[in-house]
Amino acid sequence: MYETDGPVASVHLDTTRDTADAEKMIELRWRALRDDLARQGADEPTLTALDGVAGGVRGIGGPQGEALYAARGEVLGVHTMARPPARDRASWLPVADPFDLVLDRDHQLPYVVVAIDREGADVFSYAAAAADPSTARFFNGGTLHIQKVNAGGMAHGHYQRRAENLWESNAEEVARDVERAVRDVAAAVIFVGGDERSIGFMREHLAKLEPPVVELPGGRADYSAADSLRSAVDAALERESARTREDVVDDFHNRVSQGTAVDGEPGTLRALTDGQVETLLLAADRCGEDWLYSAPDEPRALATVPSVLTDPDRALRAPATALMLRAAALGDAGFSELPAEDSASPTAATLRFAM
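Given the sequence above, the corresponding structure tokens read:
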């Protein structure tokens, strides 16, 4: 999106399909945004290119959104959003304006789901914001003497130990599949449901793995158990995502006192221009945001007036959020939402310094 010369059409559209007339409503919302883009000056080839991709993922119910970007008659990107944008929005600017998409991704995490029993497990890995698994692994190990016996006699202890050893052996194989799944998507958390003893054995073999293991109801026993696990994952993912964002904000507050973070637009702009931003923090509310200037060939250079740029005559003017996101992305910075109550300004950043 940032390699094009622009201007760029940026579209964020609610594509929720939860009513009988959802398809018609989505079409009407897109038509309204298309007309808005035309009024802003978007060219017909670019609008026609967007016509071919607007509408979201059909056949999937529930809340969702869509982010579209196009320029010079070509589509630059089509992204499904886990949640609808706060409002339908379209802009025609010198640079792409992906803030709604960035916020959506900030609320998602890559993760692994494990449904485990004494025979094995089903292991799925999900990239951030993905509806379908990136990988799926199914393991069924040994089952001979997998059930403990109640009979007495001299062989009772032997059968008990053999069953325990088989459970542990199966759980060890599951742990290997989990480790591969974590690597597949760089998972931030592992959700697991199923047999408690098997989960315990699996945990022992995952002791050195960094992502936390979160136990949930549901499992592998039948369709009902699998559905219960999936529902529990959706709620737990929201909690883990919120906790991750809280950790980023807590780190920001700690670093302000150490001089390795800045609170407010002036300091953030200087840090972005110097390539010192480790994580850019922006509030979701864009009401009253400033417009800034930047240069086509110096995307990290940001200014409130064009005269301070190297070539003022070629300066780009766009909303502050759009230009700050571009500078952050091209400066290899991360992003996190900044709750309005956690800062004196809607703009902040943690910093990195060359050693």
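Confidence is low (pLDDT under 50) at residues 143-160. Try to locate this feature in the token string yourself.
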